Amino acid sequence: MTRRRFIVLLLGLLSVGVLAACGGSTPAPGEKVTVTIPPGATAGQIAQLLEDAGVVSSANDFVERIVADGEGEGFKPGTYALRTNEEYDRIVFQLNNGPTADAARLTIPEGYAIWDIKAEVREVGIKPKQYQAALDAHQPPTGFLANGEQATTLEGFLFPATYDVAVPADADALVADQLSAFGDNWAAVDMAYAKQKNLTNYDVLKIASLIEREAQASDDRAKIASVIYNRLRADMSLGIDASVQYGAGSWDELTGTDLQSDSPYNLRRFKGLPPTPICNPGLASMQAAANPAKTDYLYYYAIKDDPQGRHWFTNSYDAFLQYQKEHPYS
């Protein structure tokens, strides 16, 4: 190793060490930008173009890292679609493969379960079996315990967002991006109140998934969260049919058999939270789950024909029954 290569490598390791020691983190990728790399551009010139476009925060740091990693010599000219604060591995992958490795866009809506995502990833050329293999190769984030043990499913951790997926698509990279986005967003959730109520991170994520499937109007999220908290405190079953649907393996209308099932996801029959999240919630639902509205509500009912999908709330079972009688759906 040459003296210059050794010094660059040492500086790169030191910069990583300082970042870790200070608890720093890289911002999540942002808006899409276009960067044109001219033929014959040096690694330093490419890095400066990336910095000017906001793809990297420091051209010098980027050069140090690619030199340390033995990258840069194979970067190809052309016009690239990248994102501000782009992940290092994605930048290197794109530049090594050339403009033909542009990214396809995949949108995962809030409230999708894993089975929904498996169907959606076909749009970018990923087969359901490939996506499942990628799921099997990753572990849930640390700090999410189920009955004292680490969670074993990625349900709930595959953050809903729009992703740039390399062409050809890489299922493993997509799952890694989803988990990274979850970590970035979970860091914005204030867990202080939930912890006062003896709820764990995983409890709150489960609640968030219930909210995501139940709430359509944004201002209903915290109210539905309050109903869940109040029912848990009162030792009542939650009675949330979205969980029953998840246990049945479909979002289709429930049957009488479904409602009588012994599935632990049948929250009509069993008290407490479901064994796992029932979908992958967005940030708004996670925040509502950790910080519910302060109400005495125990019941809610979808308002018929409300264009925003809002719910009616009450703390009275008799009032709940009367409202159902006066506003039948059939």
Structure description:
The chain has a two-stranded antiparallel ribbon. Strands 3-6 form a two-stranded antiparallel ribbon. Strands 4-5 form a two-stranded antiparallel sheet. It has helices at residues 3-21, 43-52, 59-68, 88-97, 114-120, 128-136, 171-186, 192-196, 201-214, 221-233, 241-248, 256-259, 283-290, 317-326, and strands spanning 32-37, 78-83, 103-107, 145-146, 149-150, 162-166, 299-302, 311-314. It is built from 14 helices and 8 strands. α1 crosses α3 (59-68), α2 (43-52) packs across α3 and α6 (128-136) packs across α7 (171-186). The longest helix has 19 residues, at 3-21. Mean pLDDT is 88; it is low at 1-25.
Main pleated sheet: 2 strands, antiparallel
Radius of gyration (Å): 24 Å
Please estimate the helix content: 40-55%
> What's the number of extended β-strand segments?
8
Shape assignment: elongated
Mean pLDDT: 88
H/E topology pattern: HEHHEHEHHEEEHHHHHHHEEH
Note the total helix count: 14
Note the beta-strand portion.
Answer: 5-15%
